[in-house]
């Protein structure tokens, strides 16, 4: 296989990983390249993570008792006996250089592009954190935000975590019920929110949704409002303690040396991310300060290779785990680029213009977005110099060889195109990249350091050059501490450890080749990949179940040739009812407003019935496999189906859909 990209000698010599390997050599660990280093990182797991701790000079109190406890996943704990704080590490570089240098670039459809310095961010965080402490908020309390990707949200997150409280966020594009499904599980004490936002040139007032949200959160004692959208109402109808964002930042300046971060133990909750499953409420995934700090340093330096004063620009919303990784730029004494709005409004050259203006070094985009760029005939390097750009990260969904080739031809011939794959569960990568390795089109270069990722067949045997289930066989520091409210790890274990006991089962189909590269072939469950963001079918079903016009429904998402996705929603209607244009419009509107624009399907189809197993479960995975072209006899047993004749209808639909797609 021919490599399409290899790092120059200068880039290799100056890479973070080259310096780390030299540092290890001085301590008696000699490695000739990435593969031997990865072998050591999974063979001597405690030694590897101790090296990460030492190399990045982790700020902590206490003496380490155990780098890694003997408890099996998911109960493994790390660096017991020590206490540290995530926000302290993000802001540590405020004093390492000119405090007036840029930390955040930011812009939105409501704000022109601008910058905020390290001193401004750090000063605001300290003021807000001090105010939160004065309000009685601290360790054991949860703070949530219904806010977009703007500097105020970053400041709120850092202030919350600086005092040891637990953070969670949702994007304002989420409808009220989607937010309630998340936040009601974690009992927030304080809510940060905006009154609305602008997307694709349209203004959205969120105060009505916010009224519903606050009424559904009985533990919330305070609401901090930011009037972000000028035409929306200033506040919801809520009788509790309501405060204005500017008032939270009043008072004298607090110098860095005059503020004390709350350092916490390795089992202390940092934030709650939500990974929508296919049944029930979204899973509230809890991460810890230790695991995230270690994992984010490792990934920012060795897999994204963000240079000092480099800029990381991921297009993201606050409801996606990628937003939590934007601080990788500041962790590396660099910058982060924030943008709130439609990525292709007024056209798809927008993100390239922002990357050029902010001197972005690492740009993260989804292959789906690049399809829009290509479809509009945009060639970025014909409009923008992109002089600082070093890497284009293809994330959120598998990238085809054609996408890799397009990046090199249309963006920059010496840019590093790399596809990487991770998950909300780790808030980081599982299959990653390194400039020490060659890049092959369509391939993910290697498992991430410290990540013992493999493919297992149905018998649980590790396989190479054969499709299998992606698993992780040893614990990692950023694995979830627990699921919020999940006594005895019951839901956690059933989600990831039932298929292969003692082994993390991630839910992706993957193929590893002889030289360690890999190809993610899609989900092995019914999770939906929507524009690079994973959402759960259960959220769509909850809206459908509230509609008397729909008797039942089934939604799937399949990967299409060329890197696209197709998400149809099949609806079973009550006897005598028809699927009219008005009903289709009503379904789309309900999903858009109650959930989010990402939950709106590509097509709504009337089905005679929804196929069910004998135990009453919707047969999402078999329907998905039919739409991927697999034969009916291979994807489902008629004997295990409550209504087997319906499978024939879905098989015929899949055949017709594939024929029409291939002919177009």
TrEMBL record:
Acetyl-coenzyme A synthetase N-terminal domain sequence ranges: 34-89
Source taxon at top rank: Bacteria
InterPro entries linked to this entry: Acac_CoA_synth, ACAS_N, AMP-bd_C_sf, AMP-binding_CS, AMP-dep_synth/lig_dom, ANL_N_sf
Enzyme class, broadest EC rank: ligase
Record keyword Ligase present: yes
One GO term of the biological process aspect: lipid metabolic process
Residue span, AMP-dependent synthetase/ligase domain: 97-474
GO MF: acetate-CoA ligase activity; acetoacetate-CoA ligase activity; ATP binding
This protein's UniProt keywords: ATP-binding, Ligase, Nucleotide-binding
PROSITE patterns: AMP_BINDING (PS00455)
EC annotation from Swiss-Prot or TrEMBL: 6.2.1.1
Keyword Nucleotide-binding tagged: yes
Family: Belongs to the ATP-dependent AMP-binding enzyme family.
Entry-linked NCBIfam families: ac_ac_CoA_syn, PRK03584.1
The protein's name: Acetyl-coenzyme A synthetase
Gene this protein is translated from: acs
